[in-house]
Amino acid sequence: MKRILVTGGAGFIGSHLCKWLLDAGNEVICVDNLFTGSKKNIEGLFDNRNFEFIRHDVTRELMVEVDQIYNLACPASPIHYQYNPVKTMKTSVLGATNMLGLAKRVRAQILQASTSEVYGNPQVHPQPENYWGNVNPIGVRSCYDEGKRAAETLFFDYHRQSGVDIKVIRIFNTYGPNMNPDDGRVVSNFIVQALKGDDITVYGDGKQTRSFCYVDDLVEGMIRMMNSREGFIGPVNLGNPGEFTMLELAKKVLAFTGSKSQIVYKPLPKDDPVQRKPVIDLAKKELGWEPKISLDEGLKRTIKYFKGIIG
Ligand code: NAD
Ligand code: UDP
């Protein structure tokens, strides 16, 4: 049994991670300021005596005794991370600094939830870990992209300078139950629109691509990475290499919900990446990991969840 800190534990991915770690018999301390997360996501965990929730902002110092830290605290949807971009950058940079300081003091292992956004609008396709990316440093997405890049730098410098035991994963678009229905990401938007009979809002011409990973697959990969062999620190891509256009996604959602919603086209947000697909050879080799849940299956499970919460 380990004592494990999960920052951002009341969010979409964090809530699943907390549950998996508890189910495996660990003690879990969930830290979250509830900016985009919610107590509802973790309400089923409060009865477990191995679970503790602390309402706390990671831009401030935290002192707890733990063996492992999963650092997920950061708004992830473009609408939310652009709402207060200065705070987003602080959350990534000060949050990483505080959690790395904690890991150094208590000699905990620490895993950073980085992102495929470090590749920006990639000119190499698909994206391997050794691609350095094509990121606008002064655009509307920069608070998130550059914040996450700076956090990776801090992780590697704490490792080189102070020997902190780090693990870095780069998460590609992940979806599933517990996504906030209002957070504006494409999978939740399309499903909620379809279930309500509202127009499906495709941005741009809908030909931009993404690779979608179901949350259970991702969480399994995260835990494998945290417990991977000593000396393997990443960064490692975690994502599903299936690649789909947003129009293909919209059509799948319409088919699986049986909705009569119409597809409408809206302006493409600034700096929206044209294509994205992970190379996952490293995760396969080092972690013995690859996603098992197809987009069709994952969408059906996610639609079932949203039907339950929006009626
Ligand atoms: P989410 O918004 O649901 O979860 C983020 C959580 O962090 C929320 O509970 C939020 O309240 C909390 N938080 C935000 N700022 C905080 C702060 N200053 N102090 C404490 N808590 C704070 O998003 P998610 O999809 O679950 O993403 C989790 C992590 O994974 C994020 O770091 C995100 O960047 C990363 N990630 C997610 C995806 C994805 O597709 N879902 C892709 C790449 C990376
Ligand atoms: N998108 C869309 N309609 C929506 C929301 C998003 O067409 O209602 C597009 C968006 O422009 C992007 C893709 O879907 O090309 C994925 O967007 P999301 O915000 O989910 O993630 P990210 O852009 O960060 O990968």
What does this structure look like?
The protein is α/β, with parallel strands linked by helices and 311 residues long. It has a domain at 3-175 and 213-240 and 278-292: NAD(P)-binding Rossmann-like Domain (Rossmann fold), CATH 3.40.50. The protein is 38% helix and 17% strand. It has nine helices and 13 strands. The chain has helices at residues 12-23, 78-83, 85-106, 142-162, 186-196, 215-226, 246-257, 281-287, 295-310; strands spanning 3-7, 27-32, 51-55, 68-71, 109-115, 166-171, 174-175, 200-203, 209-210, 213-214, 236-238, 244-245, 263-266. α1 (12-23) links the parallel β1 (3-7) and β2 (27-32). The protein is globular, with a radius of gyration of 19 Å. The N and C termini lie far apart (39 Å). The structure holds nicotinamide-adenine-dinucleotide (NAD) and uridine-5'-diphosphate (UDP). Residues 77-78, 173, 185-186, 189, 201-203, 208, 210, 246, 268-269, 272 line the site of uridine-5'-diphosphate (UDP).
Summarize the structure.
This protein is of the alpha/beta class and 311 residues long. The protein contains nine helices and 13 strands.
What attributes characterize this protein structure?
binds nicotinamide-adenine-dinucleotide; binds uridine-5'-diphosphate; 311 residues; seven-stranded parallel β-sheet; alpha/beta; single chain; 38% helix; Rossmann fold; 13 strands
Query: Class by helix and strand content?
Result: alpha/beta
Bound molecules: nicotinamide-adenine-dinucleotide, uridine-5'-diphosphate
Q: What CATH architecture label of the domain at 3-175 and 213-240 and 278-292 applies?
A: 3-Layer(aba) Sandwich
The percent of residues in helical segments reads: 25-40%
Please state the CA-atom Rg, rounded to the nearest Å.
Answer: 19 Å
Number of helix segments?
Answer: 9
Mean pLDDT: 97
Largest sheet: 7 strands, parallel
**Gross geometry:** globular
Spatial ordering of strands, largest sheet: 3-2-1-4-5-6-11
Strand proportion, as a percent range, falls in 15-25%
Number of strands: 13
